[in-house]
Every structure is written in structure tokens, then in C-alpha cells.
Amino acid sequence: MIKATIEDAKIYKISELWRKKPLGLKFNDTDAIIVTMKTADGCIMKDAFYFCLKPDGTFNVKTISKDHGHLRRLRLAKFLKHYHLTDDVKHYNLKQNIGEWKGKEVQMTKSNDSTLIYVP
Hints:
The chain has 120 residues and is an alpha+beta fold. The protein has helices spanning 14-17, 68-82, 94-97; strands spanning 2-13, 31-39, 44-51, 105-111, 114-117. The protein has three helices and five strands; from the N terminus they run βαββααββ. It has a five-stranded antiparallel β-sheet. The two termini are 12 Å apart.
């Protein structure tokens, strides 16, 4: 495990990041949180969470279909709980509270050729 500190976290519309949705993202994956982290040795890493942001700033963990979109949202929910950002994922306002992520320490894990935020 690699320890890192969140330097920045921002919510983007998928259309702001790509002209065409990448393979694997579905119609209900409309938004992304891009998290930028820095390790003690100065290495900068990024990870993304994909979901659908509701107008009130929250998101639904459950989806209509039980596909990878559901797993992506479940990963975001587990991230929020594991790193003690909230106990109530259903009512957590991502828009208002994403600024609080800066400075939080997270653990990174290597997966194939990429490094991801560890979420149990």
C-alpha cells in the first residue's frame, strides 16, 4: 500500500472530459470525480469515480441495472465511508462537501499498470 494525500478533487460532467463517452461508461454515468493525490516522495497520481449527480448534489448508489455502473457507484459509496467522509451516503452532498476531501490521507494500491485508491 502507498500512502497519499488528496491535493484536489473536482466534479466534472463526462462531456467536459471526453467528446465521446469511453467504452464501459453507460447512459447513467454522467459525471466524474477526478481525485489528484500526492505521495510522500512527490509522485502525483489521479483516480476517478463515475456516477450520476442529482440536482441536490447527492447521488444514488442503486441503479436500475445491476451492471458495472452499480459497482462504480458502490465503490464511491465505500470510499466515502472507509475514509470517514460520511456515514450517510444517501444524503451526502458531493457538490458542497468535496472541498473537505483536500488534505485527507488515502491508501493507494497497484492494479495491473495503474494505481488506484484503495477501497475495501
